[in-house]
């Protein structure tokens, strides 16, 4: 199956068609314009100014400190001739160069000639929180930045559609990942830093001749990325879609084996759940979610256990709704958790210091606009929670725990349904 015929993330269409504007801590100011009259600000949430004009998307957020956070995504060209321009670079052309970066639930890969699919359409966007204001920061252009992870305030990684970036406390620089032998096309996926100068990366290779793909894992040794051998998945089309580390001997990788999609008759997809104990990988069985389609978006590791989040469909029909999928590791096996019935795609999962949050959207096949979606963990099940803002086209793409308590989330909202939404940054607590 051709990877490029699968739609990227569940919220890709609404999130990538946004016009960034100002959100504000004053709820009334967030709905000043008549075009935003149907936007409702959620209780206990605070909205923040997004310092970007023009079309843009924010896809992830990470907080190394209470007064230190990063939000990332891309500015977009939707036919105006250019994406929203960044501020003038102050660190030289080797640090930043605009426009130079080169199907369902699957990431893009670079073209066979090494160019980036997003070239001329999406330029990298990075924002920084200093405890008072979100400000735009110049970064090398690596396309759409989809994942962030921080080991410390001077060790932050960003994974994008066309490369990797690293923050050392002074500069963002582009860092190449290791070549994948024999791969016709390869792309870096999510990255995780475990706080010990150690980091892990998952990615995907694709062969346009056969339509086959496979996941790969790499580890940062302090100077370069190196490939880490993984168990044979056994199929012909698989992807590692999420990674999280709680130390060098506690790393989880999750993804999906899509081989069943290509069989005749087709068979349900299978989750891939791998654990690294510091010496070897162990694959744990799919707990049997009952879903035909299974898409992993995040893995979260905590002292109390681990979680896998995403969404699923009960049959492969294009009209079938997408439902929240959240698994919990009990120390011995992966278990399904109870979630509210109905539509809901979980894009991220994070703790606010007291409980767990899962955020995403309510994408429907018959209405791609959807709405923002949030759940909280009650101790034995997930329950519906307030969202920072409601309006046609709303989605929450990323969430991050704030040291000392609280939660950041980023996303987008299109209240008029005219593909003129704006970027969203919000905090709870």
Topology:
Blueprint: H1 12-15, E1 19-20, E2 40-41, E3 45-47, E4 54-65, E5 68-76, E6 122-129, E7 134-137, E8 145-152, E9 155-160, E10 163-167, E11 172-175, E12 185-193, E13 199-206, E14 213-220, E15 225-228, E16 238-245, E17 251-257, E18 270-276, E19 281-284, E20 293-302, E21 305-313, E22 323-329, E23 334-336, E24 345-351, E25 356-361, E26 372-377, E27 382-384, E28 389-390, E29 395-401, E30 407-413, E31 422-428
Antiparallel strand pairs: 1-4, 2-28, 3-31, 4-5, 5-6, 6-7, 8-9, 9-10, 10-11, 12-13, 13-14, 14-15, 16-17, 17-18, 18-19, 20-21, 21-22, 22-23, 24-25, 25-26, 26-27, 29-30, 30-31
Summarize the structure.
Keywords: Signal. By secondary structure, the protein is mostly beta strands.
Structural features, described:
The chain has one helix and 31 strands. It has one domain: YVTN repeat-like/Quinoprotein amine dehydrogenase (Methylamine Dehydrogenase, Chain H). The chain is mainly beta and 429 residues long. It is globular. Strands 1-4-5-6-7 form a five-stranded antiparallel β-sheet, with no helix packed on it. The protein has a four-stranded antiparallel β-sheet with strand order 3-31-30-29, with no helix packed on it. The model is unreliable at 1-38, 86-103 and 106-113 (pLDDT under 50). Helix content is 1%, strand content 45%.
CATH homologous superfamily annotation: YVTN repeat-like/Quinoprotein amine dehydrogenase
CATH fold title: Methylamine Dehydrogenase, Chain H
Number of helical stretches of at least 4 residues: 1
**Strand order in space, largest sheet:** 1-4-5-6-7
Segments where pLDDT lies below 50 for 5+ residues?
1-38, 86-103, 106-113
CATH architecture: 7 Propeller
Q: Tell me, what's the shape?
A: globular
Briefly, what CATH class? Mainly Beta
Helical amount? under 10%
Measured between the Cα atoms of the first and last residue, the distance is: 44 Å
Supply the helix-strand structural class: mainly beta
Number of domains: 1
Biggest sheet character = 5 strands, antiparallel
Overall pLDDT metric: 82
Protein name: Galactose oxidase-like protein
Organism: Actinoallomurus bryophytorum
Keywords: Signal
Signal peptide: 1-29
């Amino acid at each position: 199956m051709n990877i490029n015929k699968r739609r990227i993330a569940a919220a890709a269409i609404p999130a990538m068609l946004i016009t960034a504007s100002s959100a504000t801590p004053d709820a009334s100011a967030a709905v000043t314009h008549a075009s935003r009259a149907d936007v409702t600000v959620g209780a206990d949430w605070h909205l923040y100014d997004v310092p970007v004009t023009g079309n843009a998307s924010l896809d992830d957020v990470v907080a190394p400190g209470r007064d230190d956070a990063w939000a990332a995504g891309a500015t977009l060209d939707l036919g105006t001739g250019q994406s929203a321009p960044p501020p003038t670079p102050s660190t030289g052309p080797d640090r930043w160069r605009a426009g130079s970066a080169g199907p369902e639930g699957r990431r893009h890969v670079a073209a066979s000639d090494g160019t980036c699919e997003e070239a001329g359409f999406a330029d990298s966007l990075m924002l920084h929180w200093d405890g008072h204001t979100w400000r735009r920061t110049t970064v090398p252009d690596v396309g759409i930045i989809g994942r962030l992870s921080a080991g410390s305030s001077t060790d932050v990684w960003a994974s994008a559609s066309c490369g990797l970036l690293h923050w050392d406390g002074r500069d963002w620089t582009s860092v190449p990942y290791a070549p994948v032998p024999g791969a016709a096309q390869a792309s870096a996926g999510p990255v995780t830093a475990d706080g010990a100068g150690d980091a892990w990366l998952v990615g995907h290779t694709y062969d346009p001749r056969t339509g086959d793909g496979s996941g790969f894992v790499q580890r940062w040794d302090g100077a370069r990325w190196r490939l880490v051998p993984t168990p044979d998945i056994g199929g012909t089309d698989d992807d590692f879609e999420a990674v999280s580390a709680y130390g060098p001997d506690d790393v989880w990788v999750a993804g999906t084996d899509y081989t069943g999609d290509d069989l005749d008759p087709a068979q349900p997809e299978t989750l891939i759940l791998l654990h690294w104990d510091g010496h070897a990988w162990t694959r744990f069985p799919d707990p049997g979610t009952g879903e035909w389609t299974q898409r992993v978006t995040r893995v979260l590791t905590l002292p109390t256990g681990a979680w896998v989040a995403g969404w699923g469909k009960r049959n492969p029909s294009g009209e079938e709704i997408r439902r929240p999928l959240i698994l919990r590791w009990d120390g011995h096996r992966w278990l399904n958790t109870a979630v509210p019935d109905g539509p809901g795609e979980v894009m991220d999962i994070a703790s606010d210091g007291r409980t767990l949050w899962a955020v995403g959207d309510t994408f429907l096949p018959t209405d791609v606009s959807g709405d923002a979606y949030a759940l909280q963990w009650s101790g034995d099940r997930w329950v519906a929670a307030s969202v920072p803002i409601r309006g046609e086209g709303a989605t929450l793409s990323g969430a991050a725990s704030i040291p000392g308590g609280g939660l950041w989330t980023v996303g987008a909202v299109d209240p008029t349904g005219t593909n003129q939404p704006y970027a969203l940054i919000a905090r709870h607590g």
